[in-house]
Design brief:
The chain is mainly alpha-helical. The chain has ten helices and no strands. The radius of gyration is 17 Å and the shape is elongated.
């Protein structure tokens, strides 16, 4: 596959950093990626982007960013031993902050920020995205199953 050999690695490299911005800043890159997918698949301009991405079993750049952040959250929550010490924070979940039962005890703890810059930090976005997942998806502890379910969830979700 030409797309996975030449284009996808370039998009995936550092997506956690460069895609942590507003969609207007990613617009030109997303348009170019859609155009490349249409050319490779010999599709016309009327073809939906959902069909383009699902036929290659990949995600648009904004959803690829969410996908990578959520995979990182899964690693922190279920298998943090191989991660660097920086990511092995002792206070990542609500259960580490307060010691009484709530509906969100097993969710990531989110801090409050006064600026939009602070609210776009990776740790805050990771907590926000993880906490918004359905409970059955969050409870999958096996990495490969979680990855597959997450990709299906993000492909089917139009937001």
């Amino acid at each position: 596959m030409l797309y996975y050999a030449l284009i996808y690695p370039k998009i995936l490299y550092g997506v956690e950093l460069y895609a942590n911005t507003y969609l207007t800043h990613l617009h030109d890159l997303m348009i170019l990626n859609n155009r490349l997918l249409r050319i490779i698949q010999h599709k016309n301009l009327a073809t939906s982007t959902i069909i383009l991405y699902s036929s290659f079993n990949t995600l648009p750049i904004d959803k690829l960013f969410k996908f990578q952040i959520l995979l990182h959250a899964h690693n922190i929550l279920y298998d943090s031993k191989p991660l660097p010490k920086v990511f092995q924070s002792p206070t990542c979940c609500n259960s580490d902050i307060h010691h009484y039962g709530t509906r969100s005890t097993n969710d990531f703890h989110r801090s409050r920020f006064n600026t939009s810059f602070g609210s776009r930090t990776t740790s805050n976005l990771m907590a926000k995205l993880w906490n918004s997942l359905p409970p059955d998806t969050k409870s999958i502890s096996i990495y490969s199953l979680f990855k597959k379910q997450l990709k299906i969830l993000l492909l089917s979700n139009s937001t």
